[in-house]
Amino acid sequence: MQLETREQALAYLAQIQPSVTFEVQPFESGWICKQNLPPQENLGRGLGMASLIIDKETGVVTVQSSLPRDLIAQQYAEAKRTGEPLPGRQIYPHQWRITIRRIREDRQRIEYQMAAESLTDPPEPTQQHPLTIDKQTYLHDPTDWLSSVAMSHAEWMSRQNQGAWPEVDTTEV
How big is the CA angle at 163 (ends 161 and 166), to the nearest 5 degrees? Predict the structure, then answer.
């Protein structure tokens, strides 16, 4: 995948986050992107907001820190040149498909069977295990990263459904 122009980068971002607009700036390894905010929000939220990087060769999108854009671009380009691990966390293409299936539920807790399927090539091993969530505190067991994503998604779905926790649901990260 080659993302050579500003228009290509913006179109690619629109596929990933269609309801968000971005300002994009080129740098040697790709595009550094900041979410456009209305002026009244920019005063409060603009400071400290993370940036995205689109790698122009691979199309991989990573979320970066809130450091100045030129510094983020410099660190990313240097890591790419030297073969060091790239900074940031990949958010696209998705790397995992997480499915939860409700096993049991009472007033205090809900238990799901969670399956996390790798979408990478080569794939990581599939992870399957029970996931227990306290519906009041949102504490969950186990507490690994993928279980945390599953818990957050299930809790978000319950808020969308007037407090009804999903029976079966899938999300990708």
Answer: 60
Note the pLDDT of residue 49: 84
CB 57 within 8 Å of CB 76: no
Q: What is the rounded average pLDDT of the residues 27-50?
A: 79
Pair of tokens at residue 26: 């080129």
| Tens-place pLDDT, residues 52-92 | 999 999 999 999 998 999 999 999 999 999 999 999 999 99
Contacts of 115 (CB under 8 A, 6+ apart): 98, 99, 126, 127, 128
> Which residues are registered as beta bridge partners of 131?
112
Separation between Cα atoms, residue 3 and residue 23, nearest integer Å: 15
CA trace torsion 80, 81, 82, 83 (10° rounding): 40
pLDDT at res. 81: 96
> What are the DSSP E strand ranges found in the chain?
22-27, 30-35, 52-55, 61-63, 89-92, 96-105, 109-118, 127-134, 140-141, 168-172
Provide the token pair at 117: 């399927």
Give the mean pLDDT of 126-137: 98
